[in-house]
Amino acid sequence: MIPAVLAALVKIKAPKIEVTLLEWLGHDDVVVRAAAASGLGEVKPAGGDRALVEAFHAAARDEAYGARTALLDALLKYGPEVARATLREALADRDWAVRVHAAARLAPIESTIDPAAAIRPAPTNRPPSFYESPDLVSPTVSPHVYIDTERGTIEIEMAVIDAPLTCLNFMALARKGFFAGSEWRRVVPNFVAQDGDPRGDGEGGPGYTIRDEINQRPYLRGTMGMALEWADTGGSQFFLAHAPQPHLDGRDTVFGQVVAGLDVLDRIQPWDKITRVRVWDGKSMSGR
Question: Which range of residues forms the domain containing residue 65?
Answer without folding.
Answer: 2-118
